[in-house]
UniProtKB/TrEMBL annotation:
Assigned GO CC terms: endoplasmic reticulum; membrane
Gene Ontology MF: a single term: long-chain fatty acid-CoA ligase activity
Residue ranges of domain AMP-dependent synthetase/ligase in the record: 11-242
Keywords: ATP-binding, Cytoplasm, Fatty acid metabolism, Ligase, Lipid metabolism, Nucleotide-binding
A Pfam family hit: AMP-binding_C_3
Protein name: long-chain-fatty-acid--CoA ligase
Amino acid sequence: ITWTAGSVARVYNLAYAPEKQEVVVSYLPLSHIAAQMMDVWVPIKVGAFIYFAEPDALKGTLVNTLQEVKPTAFLGVPRIWEKMHEKIKETVDKSSSLRRKVFLWARNIGFKVNSKRTPGTFLGIHVHRERDPSMSYRMAKALVFTKIKNSLGLDHCRIFISGAAPLNKETSEFFLSLDIPIGEVYGMSESSGPHSISTSENYKFLSSGKIVAGCKNMLYQPSKDGVGEICLWGRHVFMGYLEQEDATMEAIDKEGWLHSGDLGRLDNQGFLFITGRIKEIIITAGGENVAPLPIENLVKETIPIISNAMLVGDKAKFLSILLTLKCDVDKMTGEPLDTLNWEAIKFCREVGSQATTVSEILDLRDPMVHMAIQKGINAVNQKAISNAQKIQKWVILEKDFSISGGEL
C-alpha cells in the first residue's frame, strides 16, 4: 500500500508539504480501496490536508463542502460525476436562450482545445498539444468554464479522477468540453488500488490511462480483437485472501499474475481500455459471446430518457434489454420516485408526449415515447457487428435501479 501511495504521488506530480499542500475531501466509505488510497495513504505520503464531508454528502451536500474546501484533487465515482452532469444540464436548460447559446459555444471551443491537448490520438484523430490557447478559448474560460468550476467548488482543482466503474462516454465528453478532463483509474482492492492511471500527460478519451510504472500487465487468452482478461503483476498485488488458500490460488497463478476477471485491451500506445467482466459475458443459444456493457452504454447515450439498461439473453435465441426511465429521487432515502425528472420530461415533450410519470407511460403505453425508444433501439442495432448482437425485444420497468432496491 505504501509503495502504491508513492507511485500515485509521482504519477500525479503531487505537491509535498511544507512547500505546498494538496487539499482533498473525503466523502466515500473508507472501506472503499479508492477512498483509502486517496483519503488516507496518499495524503500521509505527501502531507496533504484532508477534510471530511458531512455524513449526508452523497445525498446532495457534497458540493457545499467542495465549495467551502476547494480541493486541489478530487476523486469521484461515476455516479457523482453523472449527478454533477445532470445538475449542470438542468441549470443550463432553465436559463435564457442567450445563456444556452453561450454555453453551447463555449463547450464547442472547450472540446476542440482539450482534444488537441491530449497526446497521441483522440477519437481516432492524430493531434498535437496546443500550447497557446486562442482568444475564443480564453473568452469561453472567463464566461463559462471558470463559473462552472466555481459552482462545483473545483476552481482550485487540477486533478480530476473517476474510479470504481467505467465513466460513460456522454459524461466524460461533457466535462472535457468544460475544461474538466476526467482521468479514469483502473484497479481493485487486491492491487492496493490503482493499476493504470490516466493523467493530463497520459490521457486518451475513454481509456483508463497507462500501467503504473513498476507494474506489469498481461491480457490472458486474448480474442482476435485483442480483448483478454486483465492480469496484474507487481508490488501492488496483495499476498492473498486471509485464511482462504483456495480463493487465493484461484486469483493468483503460479507465475504471480493476479487474474482480475475484467476484460480489456491495450492499444499500440499502451493505453488500457476496459470492455467488461468475464462473468457478465452473455453466451447466446447460437454460441456467440456478447459483452453487454458497450451495448447498454450505447442505448443510454442514444435514448436520453433512459436511466439504466440491462441486457439479457444468456442461452436465449436473441437479446432483450430491460430499461428504466430517468426519475426524480427522494433526497432523504435515495429511492427513485414515479415522477420523471426534468430531462425525461424534456424528452417527452420533444417527441410529442405529455407524460410526467413512469406510470403514465406504462399504463397508457404512451405511443410517442414507445416509438421514440424503438427508433433509438433501431439506431443501436445498426451499429451491431452481427445479428446476434442486435436487441430484439425491450421492456420498461416500473422503477429505476437503486442501491436501496438492491439493483446497484
